[in-house]
Amino acid sequence: MHDYVLSCCSTADVTEDFLHARDIECVYFNYQVDGVWCKDDFGRTHAPAELFERMLSGADVTTSQVSVGDYIEFWRPFLEAGRDVLHLTLSSGISGTYGSACAARDQLASEFPERRLVVVDSLAASAGYGLLMDRLAELREGGMGIEELAAWALEHRLEVQHWFFSSDLTFFIRGGRISKAAGLVGGLLKICPVMDVEADGSLAVVEKIRTKGRAQRRVVQLMHELAQGGDGYDKRVFISNSACLDDARTVSDRIEAEFPQMDGRVLHFDIGATISCHTGPGTVALFFWGKPRA
């Protein structure tokens, strides 16, 4: 057991086995399908294919952040056991859960004045958030204390590059991220918007590229331009996808061929239920360590 707890939200979009292997604790986000509330529990409640089938058939889906009460219930057993906690939340540019976490922290501070409960806004999402947690777990394993690790996260969190594209704009339109008119034109022209997570942690459409193949090549090109060490990049690469693993593998095959010094092979993950409720199927997201987002 480590000296302190390292925890995150299920929207880090890795797997439970991945988190357990690194001794990272996790609190679940929530989503609703046709009025029934579910936990974003790494696909146990709804496998990705089942969730997308229901979405495509017209199911009403919404999401809900981790609440103040959820955080208190999650953290209290660790504090009662005499352990300190460092928690990183999903980006505040995407969700209000960072505010909920801070409110829960403040409530628990009076109850456990001798304990340290540190909350950091990851400014990251999906497996980019997972990539950050992976590195923090390594640093903790190397002996870094809670305050030092929190400071490292704040200093380096913007170095996690997030680049993604979608070949199906249906749910971006439904969620209001792309207008109906733009979506209609995009569909007719086979446009795949290339998006990123900005320095404030929000999502942004950066380029509008015709055809999925060009979008796949573009995100790899962006990695050449932005990765730490350029073509000599020697760290890990994560990719997440929503029901389009073949598209994701096309990207990872190119990356493994063009970045021969990277640490191991590209790791693939499913985009979790919370984020999938907004993207729908057809999204591929690439994450690597790069120049700080500005």
Describe this protein's structure.
Helix content is 41%, strand content 24%. With 294 residues, the protein is α/β, with parallel strands linked by helices. It has two domains: 4-29 and 66-158, Rossmann fold; 159-289, Hypothetical Protein Tm841, Chain: A,domain 3. The strands form three sheets. The protein has a six-stranded mixed beta sheet with strand order 10-9-8-13-11-12, with helices on both faces. The radius of gyration is 19 Å and the shape is globular.
Strand order of the largest sheet: 10-9-8-13-11-12
Distance between the termini: 37 Å
Give average pLDDT, whole number: 92
Strand-residue fraction?
A: 15-25%
Low-confidence stretches: none
Question: Which architecture of the largest domain does the CATH hierarchy give at level 2?
Answer: 2-Layer Sandwich
Shape: globular
Number of domains: 2
The total of helices stands at 11
What's the helix and strand layout?
Layout: E1 4-9, H1 16-21, E2 24-27, E3 30-33, E4 36-39, H2 48-56, E5 61-64, H3 68-80, E6 84-89, H4 97-111, E7 117-121, H5 126-141, H6 146-156, E8 160-166, H7 170-174, H8 180-188, E9 191-197, E10 203-210, H9 212-226, E11 238-241, H10 245-258, E12 267-270, H11 273-279, E13 283-289
Parallel strand pairs: 1-2, 1-6, 6-7, 11-12
Antiparallel strand pairs: 3-4, 3-5, 8-9, 8-13, 9-10, 11-13
Helix pairs in contact: 3-4, 5-6, 9-10
